[in-house]
């Protein structure tokens, strides 16, 4: 890039697991008189395909300020427009890096595509990068497109392919998991952030949290926290919805779509919005009688209501008789004890939702992991809870997550995965390999991504596909060697998609064959 010929770089990534399909990326070149195309075809020995392009001033016409990047998916192994089944475009200004006209939706609306009749699924995402001058985030825009067969019934399809798989224990399965699964809806969070009482409480809670963790705060530091919260509230009140997305939203598809994409494990953190005695959202309902005021909680930010999550999952199970879901209820990241429901309250809550739906679903636990898939299906035991909520039936997990995960470097995640082994599994009921970093936990990255009103600046999206290109090949090559095949294994990630589900299916098949 030069002053006379400014440019904006874009990294793009393709996962293509469906034969006879292809993906094309297209960008302008030669003052707009031509275009640069990259067509990705199915390769059975290549999991993730990547490329990089620079959109520079000399690539676009003299009368345009932006160059158009677009991708298209074709259901034949050529790019004939008659074969196009999906596509998106975005205009990028090479001078400023700003995005213009686009049919790519804001992060929370980048909903995946599942076509059961034609047997395909498409997930995609885009990250609008800043200059990167003030954080560790990349200064290259990021774009990904993942194309697979439809994964909505992959368990049943696997057993239909080979009946012996139905005799295998459920613990032989490898499951694609949704990290912070209920954080795909920010409507309740937006209500909170516009409430002065809540933001005052948030400021005090931030002070208490830091103090309790050994951080000494002088008067200037306390004032800085208050000033930041006021700025935060002002930005939200003036339309800065992306700030909430960047801070706390880890998914972009609802539970039903995540299930259709093949996700079968859900990290759910149900809690009350009881952040203060005088403030509860949406209404103050007692623990003894209320069933509608539990929300998935990300620290002090609420996502989707727990009853909606359960309703979606149970209704989906009722329509998909050969599939099994695992939910992990936990209170990770809860700052206040008042947010936590009791185990008995959660049991009553779940049973109430099931009874209201009047569907035939039995609840399972860690005791059912050694039951065969066929027997679980026969007995309608298709919703298994592996919880950490302080009850006697809690499950013990072996988890890769550690304090190094606040990173933008995929090698850090690989190091954590390499530290996991069969010996570490011995005292646990199941194993979790976390594949996502938490770039939204780095203060400089939050500030950098919040300094724009672009709707495509989630820090998690900045690392999503780049991490996938490292972690997906790793699990493909190492899980069958490094871990016991008789212990359930989960691959947890942000922005659940079909590529990880396809990996889970392949790895499950390999575990059952050995």
UniProtKB/TrEMBL annotation:
PANTHER family attached to this UniProt entry:
PLC-LIKE PHOSPHODIESTERASE (PTHR13593:SF140), PTHR13593
Q: Which domain of life is it from?
A: Bacteria
Q: What is this protein called?
A: PLC-like phosphodiesterase
From which organism does this entry originate?
Answer: Emticicia soli
């Amino acid at each position: 890039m030069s002053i006379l010929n400014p440019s904006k770089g874009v990294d793009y990534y393709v996962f293509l697991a469906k034969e006879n399909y292809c993906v094309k990326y297209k960008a302008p070149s030669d003052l707009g008189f031509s275009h640069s195309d990259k067509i990705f075809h199915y390769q059975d020995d290549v999991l993730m395909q990547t490329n990089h392009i620079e959109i520079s001033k000399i690539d676009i016409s003299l009368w345009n300020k932006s160059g158009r990047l677009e991708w298209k998916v074709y259901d034949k192994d050529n790019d004939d427009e008659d074969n196009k089944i999906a596509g998106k475009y975005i205009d990028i200004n090479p001078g400023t890096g700003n995005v213009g006209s686009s049919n790519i939706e804001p992060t929370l609306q980048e909903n995946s595509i599942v076509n059961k009749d034609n047997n395909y699924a498409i997930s995609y995402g885009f990250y609008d990068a800043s200059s990167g001058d003030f954080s560790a985030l990349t200064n290259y825009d990021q774009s990904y497109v993942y194309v697979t067969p439809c994964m909505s019934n992959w368990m049943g399809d696997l057993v239909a392919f080979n009946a012996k798989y139905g005799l295998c224990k459920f613990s032989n399965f490898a499951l694609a998991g949704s990290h912070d699964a209920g954080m795909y809806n920010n409507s309740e969070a937006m209500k909170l952030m516009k409430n002065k009482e809540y933001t005052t409480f948030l400021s005090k809670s931030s002070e208490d949290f830091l103090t309790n963790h050994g951080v000494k705060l002088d008067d200037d530091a306390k004032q800085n926290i208050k000033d930041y919260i006021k700025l935060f509230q002002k930005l939200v009140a003036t339309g800065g919805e992306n700030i909430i997305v960047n801070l706390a939203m880890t998914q972009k598809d609802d539970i039903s779509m995540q299930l259709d994409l093949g996700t079968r494990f859900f990290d759910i953190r149900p809690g009350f919005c009881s952040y203060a005695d005088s403030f509860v959202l949406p209404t103050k309902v007692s623990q003894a009688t209320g069933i509608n005021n539990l929300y998935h909680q990300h620290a002090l930010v609420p996502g989707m209501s727990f009853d909606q999550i359960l309703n979606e999952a149970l209704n989906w199970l009722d329509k998909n008789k050969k599939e099994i879901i695992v939910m992990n209820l936990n209170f990770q990241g809860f700052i206040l004890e008042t947010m936590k429901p009791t185990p008995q309250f959660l049991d009553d809550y779940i049973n109430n939702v099931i009874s209201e739906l009047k569907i035939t679903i039995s609840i399972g636990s860690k005791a059912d992991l050694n039951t065969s898939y066929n027997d679980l299906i026969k007995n309608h035991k298709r919703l298994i809870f592996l919880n950490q909520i302080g009850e006697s039936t809690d499950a013990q997990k072996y988890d890769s997550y550690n304090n190094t995960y606040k990173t933008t470097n995929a090698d850090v995640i690989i190091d954590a995965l390499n530290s996991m082994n069969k010996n570490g599994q011995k005292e646990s009921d199941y194993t979790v390999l976390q594949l996502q970093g938490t770039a939204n936990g780095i203060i400089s990255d939050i500030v950098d991504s919040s300094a724009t009103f672009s709707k495509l600046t989630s820090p998690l999206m900045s690392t999503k596909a780049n991490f996938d290109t490292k972690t997906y090949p790793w699990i493909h090559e190492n899980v069958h060697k490094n871990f016991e095949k008789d212990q359930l294994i989960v691959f947890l990630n942000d922005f659940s998609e079909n590529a990880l589900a396809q990996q889970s299916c392949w790895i499950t098949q390999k575990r059952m064959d050995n």
